[in-house]
Structure formats: structure tokens, C-alpha cells
Design goal:
Length: 113
């Protein structure tokens, strides 16, 4: 298992940009908090298992709300489902490209001003 501090600086920058971008890509009240969970688990394990009960407990909300938030993140292209565990749980990874797009737009805006 890897830790975030063991990752190369470039990968850490991509994760930070990804988490920042995800806040702008979704509108739900809890949506911006889930990408951090996905990115952290992905950095450690290579994927993230999002159990709606666990997500709801961490966010202090209902399972239904957590399920809808995950669906919005999938629709927005913030996370991607890559498979299923032997127990039947979905395996998700962050779409770090969304962070790269955000970084490029951000730098373009800063250069224009």
C-alpha cells in the first residue's frame, strides 16, 4: 500500500488539481467531498470501492443521497467505474484528466489578465 507522501510531486499536483476541478464540475451539496475519497483510495490501492452506506456515514447523509452524488460524479466524468470486486462492489478510479483540463483553463485565465 502506498501513501500520498510517497507519490511523485507531479502525481500529487494532478490529484490536487483533480479534487479542485471536481468542485466546479458538480452541483450537489456532497459531490465535492467524494472525489477526495476516491483519489486517496486510488493512490493507496489503485482503485476505490464506494459503498453507499459508508459514503453516507462519512458525509452525514442518507444512502440515497450518497448514491445520487456518485451517479452525478459518474455523469460529469469525475470518476470512472473500472470493474467489480469479487463481493460485487463497484471499483472506481479518479479521472485525473479533468484536473489537467482545469489546470490548463486556470493558467490560461491567469495569463489573460
Amino acid at each position: 500500500m502506498r501513501e500520498l507522501v510517497d507519490l511523485p510531486d507531479a502525481t500529487v499536483r494532478r490529484i490536487i488539481d483533480y479534487v479542485t476541478a471536481s468542485a466546479y464540475l458538480t452541483n450537489g451539496r456532497h459531490d465535492f467531498r467524494i472525489p477526495h475519497l476516491v483519489a486517496d483510495a486510488w493512490a493507496k490501492e489503485g482503485y476505490c470501492v464506494l459503498r453507499t452506506n459508508d459514503v453516507a456515514r462519512r458525509l452525514g447523509t442518507t444512502r440515497r443521497t450518497a448514491c445520487k452524488a456518485i451517479a452525478r460524479l459518474l455523469d460529469a466524468g469525475v470518476i470512472r467505474r473500472v470493474g467489480t470486486t469479487p463481493e460485487g462492489w463497484g471499483m472506481y478510479v479518479p479521472c485525473l484528466e479533468r484536473g489537467e483540463e482545469w489546470r490548463a483553463d486556470y493558467q490560461e485565465r491567469m495569463n489573460v489578465q
